[in-house]
Design brief:
The chain has about 300 residues and is mostly helical. It contains 15 helices and no strands. Helix 6 crosses helix 12, helix 11 packs across helix 14 and helix 12 packs antiparallel against helix 13. It starts with a helix and ends with a helix. The mean pLDDT is about 85.
Length: about 300
């Protein structure tokens, strides 16, 4: 526990330290001037897109639950997603939000392991969907000469193929018989999660549908950030934001700081200037995005307190 707290503290320090450093790179007068001219309709459109994304993510999660025979409505999945997003504002890691979803979903006794397996599959396929989008973005950057050389494209493609291979192998070659013979209360629970995960090898059609839906859903951050760019009258074409945003979201998922705090902002500040935005614009865009996301996630509090009251 002490080691976990120390790790969490270090991640907070890294995130806050990076943001403080980034503020030393910008023009405060320009920053405040842009804020004063902000277009609120576009800002609240970005908040609305956060809500749409939560509904979308809950709906596609329902695909993985239904295929396992779990009697869970789409509304229930969306409701739980909103609650996990709300509580995720105070929980230290994204895993905390997944645990909220695991234990908030109303399922019969003995089906919790299937929910856990669906979360694992969801994480893996969503990551691969984002990586596929990153591959396409890197290809566009190379073709538009914004990025030189094909090594980044080949690297991203290699990681995608590697993840796909690992995913397929993990589905097909689990030691099923040993898992079925597991002894002990907790070992049996863990074994049931792995066995439920192994069952997904039979649901290839559902996983394919989930993956395709996820690829389109991963475009939401681009629309979100482009809406914020319009809110603050920032320069750059839609294509510019489309090529950069997925890479930022991919790298920011690395567990370096709490919720990518500081890491995402640094990526905005150092990648967007390559496409014509200055550092002041880039940091403003990143911070506005964090604020709009927080406001969107606060809506989940309605579902949380509604459930608590009922």
């Amino acid at each position: 526990m002490a080691r976990l707290n120390k790790s969490l503290l270090i991640r907070w320090i890294v995130g806050i330290g990076l943001i403080v450093y980034l503020f030393t790179l910008i023009n405060f007068h320009e920053f405040s001037e842009i804020l004063s001219k902000a277009s609120l309709p576009f800002f609240f459109l970005a908040v609305l897109l956060v809500l749409v994304d939560r509904v979308w993510m809950g709906s596609k999660w329902n695909i993985l639950l239904k295929v396992q025979g779990l009697n869970v409505s789409m509304f229930e999945c969306v409701r739980v997603y909103f609650i996990s997003s709300f509580l995720g504002l105070v929980l230290p890691t994204s895993v905390g939000g997944d645990l909220v979803r695991l234990f908030s979903l109303s399922v019969e006794k003995g089906e919790r392991e299937k929910v856990a397996a669906s979360l694992v599959v969801e994480k893996l396929l969503s990551m691969m969907a984002l990586l596929l989008l990153v591959i396409f973005c890197v290809l566009l950057l190379v073709m538009t000469s914004a990025m030189t050389g094909w090594r980044y494209f080949l690297m991203a493609l290699g990681v995608f193929l590697g993840m796909g291979l690992i995913f397929v192998i993990s589905l097909l070659f689990l030691p099923v018989e040993r898992l079925r013979k597991a002894e002990g209360k907790w070992l049996k629970k863990i074994a049931r999660v792995f066995l439920a995960y192994h069952e997904f090898r039979r649901y290839h059609r559902a996983m394919f549908v989930f993956f395709i839906v996820s690829v389109f859903e991963q475009c939401m951050p681009f629309l979100f950030n482009y809406s914020l760019a319009k809110a603050f009258h920032l320069p750059g074409s839609a294509l510019t934001y489309f090529m950069i945003v997925p890479m930022i979201y991919m790298i920011a998922r690395l567990p370096i700081s709490v919720d990518g705090m500081g890491i995402a902002e640094a990526l905005f500040v150092f990648l967007f200037p390559l496409m014509g935005l200055d550092k002041t614009h880039s940091l403003l865009l990143a911070l506005a995005g964090r604020l709009a996301t927080t406001l969107g996630h606060l809506i989940g509090g309605i579902f949380y307190f509604w459930k608590k009251k009922s």
